[in-house]
Amino acid sequence: xxxxxxxxxxxxxxxxxxxxINKGYRDLISVDNYSNSNVSTYERVEKITGVVVKxxxxxxxxxxxxxxxxxxxxxxxxxxxxAFKSVPESLANPLLYYRNNLDSLINLLExxxxxxxxxxxxxxxCSVYGNSEELxxxxxxSLGIPESPYAQTKFIGEGILADTVKAHQLLKVIILRYFxxxxxxxSGLNGEPASARPxxxxxxxxxxxxxxxxxxxxxxxxxxxKDGTCVRDYIHVSDIAEAHILxxxxxxxxxxxxxIFNLGTGNGVTVLEVVKSFEQVNKLTLNYEIVDRxxxxxxxxxxxxxxxxxxxxxxxxxxxxxxxxxxxxxxxxLYEGN
Length: 338
Ligand code: WQD
What we know:
The chain has helices at about 10-20, 40-50, 65-70, 85-90, 95-115, 150-165, 200-210, 235-255, 270-280, 305-310, 320-335, and strands at about 1-5, 30, 55, 75-80, 120-125, 170-180, 180, 215-220, 230, 235, 260-265, 270, 290. Helix 9 (about 270-280) packs across helix 11. The protein is of the alpha/beta class and about 350 residues long. Helix content is about 40%, strand content about 15%. Bound molecules: UDP-4-deoxy-4-formamido-beta-L-arabinopyranose. The site of UDP-4-deoxy-4-formamido-beta-L-arabinopyranose has 22 residues, from strand 7, helix 7 and strand 8.
């Protein structure tokens, strides 16, 4: 019986495939529509692990393709990464986000019912907390008003899962709320897929440092934070990947139909602190300017991660410095034409 990793050629999906293989898992199937990644990722996974992952080019918003996959493969559990994830892009194109992120989830859950797949791990996001009054946020913190359609799709997705487990007793679900995944694999051979127009802060930083962008724009310098820039909880992508293995193990013994875990370091860091750390560890000077705020941004969010530590046994290994070093190492690898 296989583990289906959706979005397996993407950033977090590919790092999770690597960790699954490192932990001895072999019956793995990955699907992706390559909208935010490239099929060449699987070659990098093979280069790092020596294992070829079976993969299919599937758009999960297509119900028939989903069903065909489950007819062909005996799938026991699903780790569902595949989704669009850019805050600004979701504001510009909300229907694309609702269609993609929700249709794919619903199609998968229907297949779970039809083909008796009862274990499901869902990629959610700290963005469901909105502008929380309570910091650090725990899994019990009240969910704020999602500040973007992207955040809304994660909020609605969690609701779909909560309703579905009530109606289908055999299904067990773990929701993982990622804070801000950054960094790259320690080998320097895998990282965030290159994108001419990156969505997030750290790829913008590394592309500016590499001269691919002439200047980093820091969105907002007038927030009520220590230096006026937004606070986030940056978490190494390999720590996020490790949490998925622990969540798979936990699903076997979980005594409730659904549970939620924050995946963050617990450290709130400002945008300027990230920039300074990047400059210091990589001995570079970054060209940046502080501009107006970006619509959809929350002022500050960072995790109380004690529940994941207590129940999953998860403890982040990497600090901000390693995140910045690995991100730069990956950018250089890309820059050399890999
Ligand atoms: C971080 C901070 C920006 C770019 C989203 C999702 C989250 C996760 C990561 C999935 C903000 C500032 C950014 C730039 C900047 N997705 N910034 N200049 O929006 O916090 O989180 O992506 O795993 O779930 O919500 O991430 O990296 O876009 O922004 O100043 O060029 O960096 O304003 O304060 P975000 P981000």
